[in-house]
Design goal:
The protein is of the alpha+beta class and about 270 residues long. It has a single domain, classed as 6 Propeller (Neuraminidase). Helix content is about 20%, strand content about 25%. It contains five helices and 16 strands. The protein has a four-stranded antiparallel β-sheet with strand order 3-2-1-16, with no helix packed on it. Strands 4-5-6-7 form a four-stranded antiparallel β-sheet. The chain is globular and about 45 Å long. The protein starts with a helix and ends with a helix.
């Protein structure tokens, strides 16, 4: 009986090590109107000198590179497999198979042409909660009203601009949208709730975050995070969705402990 209790205790400890493994904040990449790409170490101040909480201006991020051609894009986003998608100024949808390829300005693979109008989108993003995508429309170049939000259920729908579920919203003039997978954004507006996941940069350059896409669509004052005058020249951005995983140092420790327990049990 005591051996069983000991094994159960070790099992619980092993699971706690695995589940409590620290999670790195996702890196965010923002592109300005000159094509300069800068990265940011998440939101919480403990993330380092380029965490959003430690800087006041977008120009204080880590400069990665400059790709002048990206300045004309309507927006970019990343999917969990590491692919980067961008809608070019002429409406063409392009794909890079990795962040490295995108940063290196490798030639992308064209996914569709003519699906979007030139200048049709203010922003676009993958949505990890649905596995789909959402965009904000520029009314002058779209059949949708300026600032409305369109949701696409699948990657194919997004690439081909088909089957959008459009909701009336008030985000005309915003500069970008991105989904952020972690919970380290502090609450400093409205309900003051921390952990916003849906972000935009407004036309005035204010970085803003909401708890859900529904809250974002419903009212701009539902936001729970804001940083004013942050990035008036930013035109696109996304979070690295491949980095929000347990850090490798702690995860194997828990797995090794569990593996050892199972081996001992089989040997008795």
């Amino acid at each position: 009986m005591r051996k069983l209790q000991l094994k159960l205790s070790l099992l619980v400890i092993g699971l706690m090590i695995v589940m409590a493994a620290p999670v790195d904040a996702a890196t965010v990449y923002l592109i300005n109107d000159g094509g300069t790409i800068r990265s940011y170490a998440g939101f919480d101040a403990s993330g380092g000198s380029t965490a959003f909480d430690n800087i006041s201006l977008g120009s204080q991020g880590t400069t990665e590179t400059t790709v002048a051609a990206y300045a004309s894009y309507q927006g970019f986003t990343m999917t969990p497999d590491g692919s980067v998608y961008g809608v070019a100024g002429n409406g063409e949808v392009n794909r890079w198979n990795s962040l490295t390829s995108w940063l290196a300005a490798d030639a992308p693979t064209t996914q569709s042409t003519g699906a979007y109008n030139a200048g049709e989108l203010h922003g676009l993003s993958y949505d990890a909660n649905t596995g789909g995508f959402y965009v904000t429309y520029e009314g002058d170049n779209s059949s949708q009203n300026d600032g409305d939000v369109g949701q696409y259920a699948t990657l194919s729908d997004f690439i081909n601009n088909t089957g959008a579920s459009v909701s009336s919203a008030t985000y005309g003039g915003n500069r970008l949208n991105f989904y952020y997978p972690d919970e380290d954004a502090p609450g400093n507006f409205g309900s003051m709730m921390s952990g916003a996941n849906y972000f935009q940069v407004s036309g005035s350059g204010q970085l803003e975050g909401w708890q859900s896409l529904a809250a974002y669509i419903a009212n701009s004052n539902n936001r729970t995070y804001e940083k004013s005058n942050f990035a008036p020249s930013i035109i696109g951005g996304f979070a690295d969705l491949t980095t929000a995983i347990p850090t490798p140092a702690a995860l194997p420790a828990g797995l090794v402990l569990l593996g050892g327990m199972l081996m001992r049990r089989r040997s008795h």
